[in-house]
Amino acid sequence: MCGIAGCISKHGAVSKILFNALKRLEYRGYDSAGMCTINNGYLQIKKDQGKIDEINARLNFLSLEGNIGIAHTRWATHGAPSQVNAHPHVDCEKKIAVVHNGVLENFLEIKQELEARKHVFLSKTDTEVIPHLIEEYLKLGLSFKDAVREACKKLRGSYAIAVICVEEPDKIVIARNESPLVVGLRDDIKFVASDVAAIIEYTNKVIFLENGDMAVVTPEIVEIMRIDSGVLVERRITELNWTVEMASKGGYLHYFIKEIYEQPHTIKEALRVQEKYLDLLTEFLDRGKEIFLLASGTSYNACIAGSYMFSKLARLTTFPVIASEFIENYGRSISIDTVILAVSQSGETADVLTALDYARYRAATIIAITNVLGSTLTRIARAYVLQNAGPEIGVAASKTFTSQLMVLALLALRLARKRGKISQFEIDDFSDKLNSMPSLVKKVLEISDKPVKELSKEVAKFNSIFFLGRGISYATALEARLKVMELTYIPCIAYPAGESKHGPISVIEDGYPVFFIAPNDETRKHVIGNIMEMKARGAKIYCVGSEDDRELIELSDWYLGLPHVHELLSPVIYVIPFQLLAYYTALEKKLDPDKPRNLAKSVTVL
Ligand code: F6R
Predict the structure, then answer these.
(1) What is the pTM of this model?
(2) 2 an active-site residue?
């Protein structure tokens, strides 16, 4: 989730405005940054790896002259953080500069086509194909605007782009598909940005572009049209009364809730992981004699769900293991035949890295899933897949959990196909279900928000809570427990529902709250038994289950019904009500949901 900005003014240089916009966008990603203006008919570019202030101290962005420019702060998805991979990217003749936020699915195909036509690429990014594509269309005699439009028609994936060209220095051309893009309006000066935070200090009058829109932006006017047809369209001008802080949270009160609501998008981005890396990971998993899924905290809960996916889809046994226990528990027995799939959103968790260091010296193969390109984990792993979830600012994980689940499901499916363990019908069916997850998650957010918010008033008074689930829902129960506990400070217990009768049930007394996660899968009939056991001892039953499950609705004191979902994908939607519950209960208790006490986003101590 990079940040892009652009500015065109009738009077004076824009570098100061772009620099301020970059600072406001830094929260979206911060591994590198760059700026480009047009001055005296040439592109002037300054870009580098590092934090914006550090880069500015070295390169002095403010020395860039020109009344038109674009800027970028990067959160790497293709190509590690470096000077060459930093945006803006340019064409062969250095006439066109592009900044981009998003993930292009078909950049390799396009790159190969362009290389065959003698285009030279300098970076490892997906973005660099865009200026070269535009260059091709300009050579065919198209105007700058039409060349951008034709280029966009070839792109598959998500993008918000801002483009400038020395041959038409009186306009910025912008376009979007899925990634957000907003235009800010003031007399004789216009702004473009990935979000309002970048420009709110200059104007509160904005136009939000819609999916498939592009626009030609000059100091005086904004002309918006559809990318596919070129037909001009009108978009409403919105007047915002947001502060800069509110804008960086997208109008939400906290990052945690913003990130919960980003999940339909981040889940879609998770589905865009590059196939060749998935294949590489699949290859290693298939070769391993013993496979560990190693992680901490929320990422460990994702690994538990992953172990069900690997065994049920690909018939592969894997061992989820808490990173800090790995060396003691398995250290002596690992060997060259061991494969470790490390899952870490930050890629910097000390417990994970220490376990991996140990395993590396015993010749184990290390592969990874992470959200941060350039993190230590990406440097140690033989191969890795990125989650593409964008930076997560709330200390407690939300969107990165569901994107980890999606990547694990994609991997399990690949492995199943490679090992010939499931039929073509099952493969197609599971792929369809995966692709339907973004809209399903959106629906679940709509269904859950109100009733969960209401429930949080009651939950805020609890002294302790039980979370139970069977099968893959055990992973959901663990994550529900972790979220509610870390944000509300209420001690919580999570167990596999079947295990609860072997001890934990002694906790139950009249009115004790027990949450069941009970999708309509093979475990449901046993879950009913567990509910009965709890009810018989006076527990109050709160249940999240399938929307049409009459029997469960009858048995529960509180019930939330969710749409049907594939059993192995159920954690992706069943965790959402609990993320919301953690959030709203924290608010009820007047706690800060973005910064729970005693916690750090990245735990770099053992
Ligand atoms: C919980 C949470 C932590 C992290 C854990 C691992 O909400 O955020 O439990 O999941 O510290 O972090 P990563 O995934 O960065 O290794």
Answers:
(1) 0.85
(2) yes
